[in-house]
Design goal:
The protein contains 5 helices and 6 strands. The protein is α/β, with parallel strands linked by helices. The protein has one domain: Rossmann fold (3-Layer(aba) Sandwich). The strands form 2 sheets. Strands 1-2-4-6 form a 4-stranded parallel beta sheet, sandwiched between helices. α2 crosses α3.
């Protein structure tokens, strides 16, 4: 996670890296930053237990009325459901390993993608966040989220306003839900 944060910082993206057990404090800090106008886009990334904590943090931010533009889980070790106002949740996991797919929880109206990396023989639970190809995917996902503007209105996902942006589709058996989009730490760009 430190490598991803360093690469993002070199691109001018401010990041915070912390242990997964501090997610409640990080959620409160992120909410305060967002509500004060110091942060306009919140992106969460976590590995292993941190991927599980990302889901908890997204739920808490939703309870606080703070939208999450993007949440990325890297091989979460617990079966979880994502809730809250999350535009897009991408779960990179290894089906034959420790990780699990993520499910939609109550109140989730964003796009959920479960991306099985089982076909990448050089990726395991213990190196998924260190693998250069996976880091590249995560960074591209973050760049795309940052370039797409502020979090969308949940009404857009629900189809009001004449458009629908959250259709479900599959891609080559790797994305099990959602549409494809060109340990324990979090990053939220500000």
């Amino acid at each position: 996670m430190d490598q991803i944060a360093t690469r993002l910082q070199h691109q001018g993206v401010e990041t915070t890296v912390a242990n997964y057990i501090s997610w409640p404090t990080l959620a409160e800090e992120a909410a305060a930053e967002y509500k004060s106008g110091h942060a306009r886009t919140i992106i969460l990334v976590g590995h292993s237990s941190g991927a599980t904590a990302v889901t908890s943090m997204a739920t808490r931010l939703g309870e606080l009325g703070v939208p999450v533009k993007l949440a990325i889980g890297l091989d979460p070790t617990s079966h979880v459901a994502v809730s809250g106002h999350v535009d897009r949740y991408i779960n990179y996991y290894i089906a034959n390993g420790f990780g699990d797919p993520v499910e939609k929880g109550l109140g989730f109206s964003g796009v959920l993608q479960n991306v099985d990396l089982e076909h990448m023989s050089d990726v395991s639970h213990f190196n998924i966040e260190k693998n250069g190809a996976v880091q590249g995917m995560v960074i591209r996902d973050i760049q795309a989220a940052l370039s797409s503007g502020p979090p969308r209105d949940t009404a857009a996902c629900n189809g009001s306003g004449g458009h629908r942006t959250c259709a479900t589709s599959t891609k080559n058996g790797l994305v099990t839900e959602g549409s494809a989009w060109p340990e324990s730490k979090y990053n939220w760009p500000r």
